[in-house]
Design goal:
alpha/beta; eight-stranded mixed sheet; Rossmann fold; binds cytidine-5'-monophosphate; five-stranded parallel sheet; elongated
Length: about 400
């Protein structure tokens, strides 16, 4: 299940060995599966393959030196050690394995291995006689006891002309072993598009119509989807919130901008979650100059904005669509009507008449309804509610298939 690699962060350590040429393809495979890759090369590795090749393939500068101030300024070794979800050394030479077993930290790669909490894995590659050597096997036993995963090696013809065990596994096999290191989240590999926050509808160059939506619920749901293994596009109106990690954020201002971004992103979406408080109306025309105060009365002509979530739900190949309903009365009745009218798969209702939850608050409570049923999510922080909602979405998708 290569999808488990979606936005996982992998440090690929390359030590000296002829199999280093396979590391180039491995980077491609990992990135194709959605992983981010940072490459660390030992000095010996650079004799076999150039950093430039691996930089081009990984899309990131290659790390080679522990004591290079400019590299440390960009991403220091401790930062890199914290960044990684997995450190895979492929190829892992006999020398590299010995240094790992001894806890020696005399270059960047071995230092990272000591400084990380991430899972460590090695893909040994060496001559069959070296592989069979008792010292090498003893070092491997030590590493296995420390829960270092050992991928391979395979048996077969070797670069030196020998035949036997010691060939590095092929890139496709290594990518699959990396994927096995990660648990499956309930939304693994799914593309989720989320709208969040308010929209702003310009009246003139300095004024606009908007609402009090903070965007917190949508951002929490985006985080929960990432946690569940999804690839997330977060379409955000003007909000004052930091961008969650490991997702793509698209900033928009007006409802029309949000619709365009939603249509573009949802072409490949499996799930569409509309948490945005989209302005229902926009000024018919945006005044080119600041509107001057003259008469006592000013009448604004407004036109209806398109309904974004209903537009997405009307598509033939529509994703699983979740809408929100903020109601002050007859909450369930209105929400069920919305479910049917907008052709949604699920509606999450907020009772905005309650003063302890909602728009600007950090807490929320929801009643979630779908065609055949409903479930109440009791008051909790928006991040807890978001995780519960994501679990329910995953459950409904499973039930529908
Ligand atoms: O119709 P109402 O605004 O109450 O519906 C709320 C739901 O519809 C929310 O999910 C909201 O994000 C979505 N919506 C939308 N585009 C609009 C209005 C609402 O996507 N123009």
């Amino acid at each position: 299940m290569l999808a488990r690699l979606t936005h996982k962060r992998i440090v690929l350590g390359v030590s000296g060995g002829i199999a280093a040429y396979k590391s180039a393809e491995l980077i491609r495979r990992l990135r194709d599966a959605g992983a981010e890759v940072q490459v660390v090369m030992t000095a010996a590795a650079q004799q076999f393959i150039t950093p430039l090749t691996l930089q081009a393939l990984s899309g990131n500068p290659v790390h080679t030196d522990l004591l290079d101030p400019s590299a440390e300024a960009a991403m220091g070794h401790i930062e890199l050690a914290r960044w990684a979800d997995l450190i895979l050394i492929a190829p892992a030479s006999a020398d590299c394995i010995a240094r790992l077993a001894q806890g020696i930290a005399n270059d960047l790669l071995t230092t990272l291995c000591l400084a990380t909490k991430a899972q460590l894995a090695i893909a040994p590659a060496m001559n069959q006689q070296m592989w069979a050597a008792p010292a090498l096997q003893a070092n491997l036993t030590v590493l296995r006891e420390r829960r270092v995963a050992v991928f391979g090696p395979a048996a077969g013809a070797q670069a030196c002309g020998d035949v036997g065990e010691g060939r590095m596994l092929e890139a496709v096999e290594l990518a699959s072993r990396c994927a096995d290191c990660f648990e499956t989240g309930v939304l693994t590999g799914q593309h989720v598009v989320i709208t969040a926050g308010p929209t702003r509808e310009a009246l003139d160059p300095v004024r606009y119509l908007s609402n009090h939506s903070s965007g917190k619920m949508g951002f929490s749901i985006a985080r929960a989807c990432v946690e569940a293994g999804a690839r997330v596009t977060l379409i955000a109106g003007p909000v004052n919130l930091p961008t969650p990690e490991r997702l793509v954020r698209v900033d928009v201002v007006s409802a029309l901008d949000m619709l365009a971004a939603a249509l573009a992103a949802s072409q490949s979406a499996d799930i569409f979650i509309a948490t945005a408080a989209v302005a229902d109306y926009r000024p018919e025309a945006v005044a080119a100059q600041k509107i001057k105060k003259s008469s006592e009365m000013l009448t604004l002509a407004l036109v209806r904005n398109p309904d974004i979530v209903a537009t997405i739900a009307a598509h033939e190949n529509k994703p699983f669509v979740v809408g929100f309903a903020a109601e002050t009365e007859k909450v369930l009745e209105h929400a069920r009507e919305k479910l049917l009218r907008k052709h949604l798969d699920m509606v999450a209702c907020n009772d905005v008449a309650r003063s302890d939850i909602g728009f600007q608050s950090d807490d929320n409570a929801l009643t979630v309804i779908w065609k055949e049923g409903s479930q109440v999510l009791e008051k909790a922080s928006k991040s807890v509610i978001a995780r519960q909602l994501v679990a329910m979405i995953a459950q409904r998708i499973k039930a529908d298939n």
